[in-house]
Amino acid sequence: MAIAEVYNPSTLMGELIHMGLETFNEIEGYKVTSEVEGEKEVNLGEKVVKIKGRADIILQKDEEKIIVEIKSARGDKGLPHRHHLMQLQAYLWLFGAKKGILFYVTPERFTEFTVDKPLDEATIIKLVQENISLSPSPRFAWECEYCVFSIVCPNKKK
């Protein structure tokens, strides 16, 4: 299988950026752990739902835990993206952390945004309920631009 069959240029760039940053063992005295999976259950009344997520990097020093979410973008316009902020806030809740860093790599620069407000469980439950009632995927047209199946997908958004 050729790499071009699996990745488009944007997703390959994102994968390479992640691989490069995940090679660090220590950053400024923090132990670096890459691709850490987390899981919590929430009660939706008659139903219990498992929430899962994978943090790109967790920095740990003593009791302090910082979640790092790495994103690549084509440019600086509109950063940080709202859905990226919410994803990191959900990870803060999921991993029980008080601080997160949204780290962007763009052609112009590296930039980061500090996030210190996790979503609360009530907000997580509301988001899950909203997503159950909506069509599953895609939610945004831009998602189709990154999907290798968009050419054959009946749900493709334009």
From TrEMBL:
InterPro entries: Cas4_exonuclease, CRISPR-assoc_prot_Cas4, PDDEXK-like_dom_sf, PDDEXK_AddAB-type, Restrct_endonuc-II-like. Residues 31-154 form the PD-(D/E)XK endonuclease-like domain. Mg(2+) or Mn(2+) required for ssDNA cleavage activity. Pfam families: PDDEXK_1. Keywords: Antiviral defense, Exonuclease, Hydrolase, Iron, Iron-sulfur, Manganese, Metal-binding, Nuclease. Its cofactor is Mn(2+); iron-sulfur cluster; Mg(2+). Its EC number is 3.1.12.1. One of its GO terms (molecular function) is metal ion binding. SUPFAM superfamilies: Restriction endonuclease-like. One of its GO terms (biological process) is defense response to virus. It comes from the Archaea. Belongs to the CRISPR-associated exonuclease Cas4 family. CRISPR (clustered regularly interspaced short palindromic repeat) is an adaptive immune system that provides protection against mobile genetic elements (viruses, transposable elements and conjugative plasmids). CRISPR clusters contain sequences complementary to antecedent mobile elements and target invading nucleic acids. CRISPR clusters are transcribed and processed into CRISPR RNA (crRNA). This is CRISPR-associated exonuclease Cas4.
